[in-house]
Amino acid sequence: MMLQVDTIEVVYEQAILAVAGVSLKVDEGQVVALLGANGAGKSSTLKAISGLVRAERGEVVQGRVLYQGREVTRRSSQALAGDGLVHVLEGRHCFAHLTVEENLLTGTFAGARLSRRQVSDELARIYAWFPRLKTRRKSLAGYTSGGEQQMIALGRALISRPRLVLLDEPSMGLAPQLVEEIFDIIAALNSREGVSFLLAEQNVNVALRHAHYAYVIEGGRVVDQGEARQMAAREDLHDFYLGSTGTQ
Hints:
Distance between the termini: 32 Å
CATH architecture: 3-Layer(aba) Sandwich
Number of domains: 1
Largest sheet: 6 strands, mixed
CATH topology: Rossmann fold
Radius of gyration: 17 Å
Order of helices and strands: EEEHEEHEHHHHEHEHEEHH
Oligomer: single chain
Mean pLDDT: 91
Low-confidence stretches: 244-248
Number of helices: 10
Strand order of the largest sheet: 6-7-8-3-9-10
């Protein structure tokens, strides 16, 4: 098992309960979708796993997080990144004043120090996955499109060769064609390089098409779960839990 989350509760500013007893798991080599409407608790769950919740005055007050069999509930995000667990935040968060390539290179700081040759090899690998970025490598990230910025954020995470990627709302604000392109790359990375993914997503159809397993979160709680193919066949998933987001 790559990741195991046992009944975690997340509280912000010692008062606001954002996640109430969430449990989930990601097996090695899986793509797992965490589905739910905006405000359901998806992002807080991912931040609790990656250790970033503390940067927002949040805390895991109950439960535990295990990564590769070891408890990491209170480990720093930097230490987790060094161990192969990386988090791509919602909204992409590129360094607008740096070039595309400089943004990608910041991802090399997460793991072991690389030689110049290794850095060059890793850049070539990322450009093979994201050909658009190669053509824009000298452009300032702030002048790239939303889809290109999502590719930058994902490429920056992948350059350190992680074992597990937490991916928050990768489809947000993107045209359908770009969403399909990015999810196709995620599926290929999973099948060819064995990268595991836990992705929080409102776009139900595309998420379930590329995931192996899915959890539905509502009000900070897991209210449903199952194999992705079986979940995709259920109309009530869209009607009762996710509203209009299921039609995207």
